[in-house]
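chain below, 175 aa
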Amino acid sequence: MTETSQPTLSLYSASVANLDRQLSNLEHILKLGEANALERKIEPSIFLNARLAPDMANLIRQVQIACSMSKNCPHRLVGSTPPVYEDTEESFSDLYALIAKARAELATFKREDIDGKEGRAFSVPMGGKKMDFVGIEYASGFVLPNVFFHVTTAYNILRHNGVPLGKRDFFGGTL
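prediction:
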């Protein structure tokens, strides 16, 4: 069998498009959690404030972090200043709005804005320090693993609280 072209993975596809998909999947998971709370007559705040361990962030914070890291990523890759979100969410509706806002921010970036920034060097303020990155390493070695961690943790919080989620749900119900 002869290959006619070698597929490539662009920085845009690996970062912006991938992050948008993760946020969509996160919204799917949350909607299943909210529906389950209503079905089981559980106050939604029980799920929203649940955590896997006492020293871990609750469900609301997991979503906030996933959204923040996602909307920051393309800004950092191109050298613009990301918007600051207030993180005042208290309900499932608030979280859906936050996800929509982050996805809308991602949608402002086009492939041509991101591709070619793989080698761009920059620093990101974190915990009173600055961490140095190069575009591809920032996206693939820092942002994506963090977003996957927080989406997975949100899934696990809901699953731990009895929401009948499966692997298909982690992928947005599309498998």
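The mean pLDDT is 95. Strands lie at 121-126, 129-134.
thats it, cya
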